[in-house]
Amino acid sequence: MTTITLVQGDITRQSADAIVNAANSSLLGGGGVDGAIHRRGGPAILEDCRRLRASHYGKGLPTGRAVATTAGNLDARWVIHTVGPRFTREEDRSELLASCYRESLRVADELGARTVAFPAVSAGIYGWPMDDAARIAVETVRATETSVEEVRFVLFDEPAYEAFARQVG
């Protein structure tokens, strides 16, 4: 059974087998969590991402999918990059957001990762309301069969932490 833990803090400071990056489809770095992971992880992550773009993901990583690279200078073995959907009131993209968590856990299982640190995917610059993002994240992790022993949600601030705490119970 997977244990869910919550931490308020900086995901780039976590020690885990895999750290999940809320990436953009280019895989080449960006703002928010993505930029922080690339900055702290160093150039090895970007080099791996460039190789992925040159081979399997020439048009970028599709929304809801996940792929792993080295973790560079982070205290982890891998970074699992997943592309969350942008929030819109016109279209329900909840299934794409849930897919980010399922696909990240699938990749973690393929790698043999036992501890995985997740951010609140899509709840930053992609505009997903935090309470709903937390609900989808926690429900999806609980419903996904995985060999991962600990899923750690690393929340940047107190409101995000509290939103996830309400879902974990």
From TrEMBL:
It holds the Pfam family Macro. Residues 1-169 form the Macro domain. Signal peptide: none annotated. InterPro entries: Macro_dom, Macro_dom-like. SMART domains: A1pp. This is O-acetyl-ADP-ribose deacetylase.
